[in-house]
Amino acid sequence: MATATATAKNARAIGAQRAQVSQMTTYDWVALDKRGKRMKGEMPAKNASLVKAELRRQGMNPQTVRERGKPLFGATGSTVQPRDVAVFSRQIATMMASGVPMVQAFEIIADGQKNVRFKNMLVDVKQTIEGGSTLHEALGKYPVQFDELYCNLVHAGESAGVLDTVLDTVATYKERMEGLKKKIKKALFYPVMVLVVALLVSMILLIFVVPVFQKTFKDAGAELPVPTQIVVSASEFMQSYWWVVVGIIIGSVVALVMAKRRSLKFAHFLDRMMLKLPVIGNILRQSAIARFARTLGVTFRAGVPLVEALDAVAGATGSIVYGDAIKQMRDDIAVGHQLQLAMRQTGLFPNMVVQMTAIGEESGALDNMLFKVAEFYEEEVNNAVDTLSTLLEPMIMVILGVLVGGMVISLYLPIFKLGATI
Description:
Layout: H1 2-23, E1 25-32, E2 38-45, H2 48-57, E3 61-67, H3 82-97, H4 102-111, H5 116-130, H6 135-139, H7 148-160, H8 163-220, H9 226-262, H10 264-276, H11 280-301, H12 306-314, H13 320-334, H14 339-346, H15 351-363, H16 366-421
Antiparallel strand pairs: 1-2, 1-3
Helix pairs in contact: 3-4, 3-8, 4-5, 7-8, 8-9, 8-11, 8-16, 9-10, 10-11, 11-12, 11-16, 12-13, 13-14, 14-15, 15-16
């Protein structure tokens, strides 16, 4: 009962802090310091009087304090990207390891932020900490930027009294994960862009170039070869119904995205199909295993219990199939099974990963073994992405040759035919 009451009070306190922060306005100020030098900056506060009072407390003479104008569309600043969180993690880890007090570290990092939205977020976190909350509680107010895994690791570091060490581990983890995500995006972006460019070039040829040739053929009165007739017919269709084709393409993409978001079964089916694709599927599998191993290694080293760690790891693999498998592993471990046995039952982890996990469990060095697995598969992803780029070069030539080259040749066939008859 006492615990529930304390939790309720804590929730009300956090709610009050959020309401207080939401009422604050950012003010731009200009002031003179003790030497008469003109200084300027910004400060969140409830009103301009509080800003002036704070400036005087710091030994400055306020000249102008103006409320910052609100943007016409939406909130100020761009979206907080994962790389922003990764950079912040490294900065706070470095400062904490150097002995800089936490509140001061947040002030320094916030002052150096160019992203206004992230800057305001860090100021809010700092104020929450000053109000008596722990770091993981303050970060927990922003679950999108600082997910459950991040907060659990920070909480483990605070509980064990090794927050600076854990923050350094978290920073390395975020940097590795962001690097891996970039590799995956590069692997998927390249072939998609090739197809998009090929389709755009084909549409431009059909709508703008083919009609010019079509008029020439009509004036010459020559009989068109079959390939040319097909291209001319496609051009006539595109000229009349290009908006239908564009609508179908955009509608298909939107429908695919919406179906994946709203239907778990469809998302699971799509994820399974992606894992079965040649080359790309192998990259996605290796990426999921690398993320699983590194995330579990980081949480286990931080002292998070294995069952709780697997809860957070399930959402960090980037794969629904592997996420569901990890949840099943969590249930198996909860009833007493070893990790390596639970992994083997899923059928998704290579024998090498299972064996290294078993060795880690037996030797009491599970985190070290998991890190070795992560490093191996991260390197495999790097190599696979480079290989994919090499394989795609001849495929690009074939696709462009068939689509664009085929159209160009079909347009010149009647000209060759006329030339042969002269």
